[in-house]
Amino acid sequence: MVDRKDVLSTVRMLREENLDVRTVTLGIHLGDCVRNDPADTAEAAASKIRMKACHLVRICDEIAARYGVPVVNKRIAISPACNLLEGRDVSAALTLASALDKAASDVSVDLIGGFSALAHKGMTPGTRTVIESLPDVLSTTQRLCASINVATTHAGIHVDAVLLAARQIVRTALATRSRRGFGAAKLTVFANMPEDNPFMAGAVLGPGEPECVVNVGVSGPGVIKRAVERLLLARPKSSLDEIADEIKHTAYRVTRTG
After folding, report:
1. How many CB atoms lie within 10 A of CB 66?
2. In angstroms, rounded to a whole number, what is the distance separating the alpha carbons of residues 34 and 174?
3. Kind of pairing, strands 20-28 and 212-219?
């Protein structure tokens, strides 16, 4: 049975504390889209995105209207593009990027992530192709976002990948100087890349995820702030442990709302 206090708490978070669903991100696995010709691979990937995501925006809008919870962004995350570009050159990467960007536009999502390279322990030819293509890719697309994983706790830091990523950030910013370097804002460099991150620019469908999955990102900084303020107003001498517990419980309610 739903607790009345939980319902009222959720209503307060929505109306007074700026709680919203920051993003609904549909993850799509594209591993089955590899073809002999790069153009065919790009078309297969775009077709699968259009098929799987064609109703995403409409359904999000319907749910938002039904429950009164704002859904700010609707997005797509694909499995890492480096897996589609093994044995390919930068021109193939540009072809794929253009197709992905067009597919995102066709289904009316805000952004599409997953033009990603996994380089935390080494670089395959496909990984290097993705990284080398980034200045051209991010300067010629509108919705496509990219990411590079250059380190993990287990493997350590791949310094060569860090150096290459740093150079590509600068080149991407220069390639988009007319847009105040916005291309670099569409690139995230990770240590310990999350497998199910719904937030851009680092969203990607990682290993262990199903073929299609919805990941929801909830934005609740205002909710946490108000919860701490209420606690300190009621108990000004609250200990750090008590504040931490209040943050933890509030974060749980925010997540459950999402």
Report:
1. 8
2. 32
3. antiparallel
DSSP the chain: ---HHHHHHHHHHHHHS--EEEEEEEEE--GGG--SSHHHHHHHHHHHHHHHHTTHHHHHHHHHHHHT--EEEEEEEES-GGGG-TT--HHHHHHHHHHHHHHHHHTT-SEEEEEEEE-SS---HHHHHHHHHHHHHHHH-SSEEEEEEEEETTTEE-HHHHHHHHHHHHHHHHHTGGGTTHHHHTEEEEES--SS--SSSS----TT--SEEEEEEEE-HHHHHHHHHHHHHH-TT--HHHHHHHHHHHHHHHHHH-
| pLDDT tens digits along 33-84 | 889 999 999 999 999 999 999 999 998 888 888 877 778 889 999 999 998 9
> Which residue in 60, 11, 51, 31 sits closest to 216, CA to CA?
60
State the burial class of residue 16 (Cβ atoms within 10 Å of its Cβ: 0-12, 13-18, 19+).
Answer: exposed
Peptide bond into 234 cis (omega under 30): no
